[in-house]
Amino acid sequence: MELQELKKQAYKLSVIDRLALVEAMVQSLADELEPRLPVPAGVLERLRGSLKTDAPPLNDAEIQVMLEECLEEKYL
Q1: What are the CA-CA distances from residue 32 to residues 23, 35, 36 (Å)?
Q2: What is the superkingdom listed in this entry's lineage (predicted)?
Q3: Domain boundaries, the chain
């Protein structure tokens, strides 16, 4: 399909569909233009589990206490 025909077809779409088309086009350009750096061999294996801990995850109450302490330090 040529560009002129594609433009004509795009004008026939609803506004929502045209916005989705624009989003898809921008994403395809971003994917293509974004430089991809090769990951050296073994890096992913070394990183896997590096943030793993034996401690249980925090519950909502513990997170709320931490948040309140942080805000107190910042604003008081």
Answers
A1: 14, 8, 9
A2: Bacteria
A3: 3-33
